[in-house]
Amino acid sequence: MRNSLKFLALTLVSIGLVFGGSGLAEAKKKKKKIPKKPSYVGAVKCNGSCHDPYYQAWVNSPHGKTFDLLKPGERAEAKKRVKLDPDKDYTTTPLCLRCHTTGYKQRGGFKPAGSKSKKGKDTSTPIDPEEPNKEQVGCEMCHSVAGGAQFRIVMKNTKGDFKKAETEKYGQRWDYSNVCTRCHTHKRTPFQPDVHDKYKFNFEERKKKVHQIDKYWNEDNEDQKLEKIKDRKKEEAQSEKTPLIIEDFIVKKGKLRFNKKKMPYNAKDKSFRYKK
Q: 203-216 burial by CB neighbour count: b if 16+ within 10 A, else e?
């Protein structure tokens, strides 16, 4: 009898350890590790479980179709206006790719057709017409300094309950009216206000076209509404107080090169550069 009770007790303890252990393992799995370096991951990472309505709205926004404008015959009149050849294919042109794709020439960013490794392996970014990603101007071009690989994990681990400072230290930026100048009014874009009045940039008007999400909510994604967004609006991030500097670059011998001293993120000492 005693041996039977002892066996039963050991069995129950074993079961407890197995299920308890699996519970602990499950808890550990939920907390994902933050990558050591920032990098671009693409808009598709925001789709599927976190920001589906935002992704769908983005796909149908001007930002979700920027790469297409580089194709022959697209926006012919606009191209002629700035002395570009409307019949030329600009989908591999460095100057254009900087502002028509996500993270071009940066860690994890878009790589055009023909990109190869030193060993000759094709490294170009896959393009799926049904699921736009890095080949368009995605979330990270507006919301991050050097890609969202790190702060998106903070968002997932906290289930959206985070402070601005918690993600800002990993490169999320909140200086939206400033970051738009990254492309819209950058000195190297051919579409300057002195060419045509339509290129005068009005942030308040343009942002109305970015996240038109109301028609994309449904029963399946209702739980993805940003519950803490009102609380965060009461906070003031560092990049709101002092906007980050905007990247400067040149195209030399057919390659786009960034001025390392004029990058908003200093990879060497993992710090951010703000406007003075």
A: eeeeeeebeebeeb
Residue 237 is assigned to a structural domain of this protein: yes
Instruction: List 256's β-bridge partners, or say none.
Output: 251
Q: What is the CATH number of the domain that holds 54?
A: 1.10.1130.10
Give residue 35's Cα distance to chain centre: 15
Number of domains comprising the chain = 1
The low-confidence residues of the chain, meaning pLDDT below 50, are: 5, 7, 12-13, 15, 17, 24, 27
Domain membership of residue 270 (yes or no) is: no
244 φ/ψ angles, rounded to the nearest 5 degrees: -75, 155
| 265 within 8 A of 38, measured Cβ to Cβ | yes
Q: Could you tell me if residue 26 is inside a domain?
A: no
Calpha distance 274→276 (Å, rounded): 6
pTM: 0.87
- Taking only the tens place, the pLDDT of each residue in 35-52 is 999 999 999 999 877 899
Q: How far apart are alpha carbons 157 and 64 in whole angstroms? A: 27
CB 245 within 8 A of CB 271: no
Structural domain that includes position 130:
34-244
Judge whether 24 lies within some domain.
no
136 closest CA partner among 230, 42, 202, 226: 42
In whole angstroms, how large is the CA radius of gyration of the chain?
23
The H-assigned helical ranges of the chain are: 2-30, 52-59, 76-81, 94-100, 139-143, 151-157, 164-168, 176-179, 203-206, 229-233, 238-241
Measure the CA–CA gap between 72 and 88, rounded to whole angstroms: 5
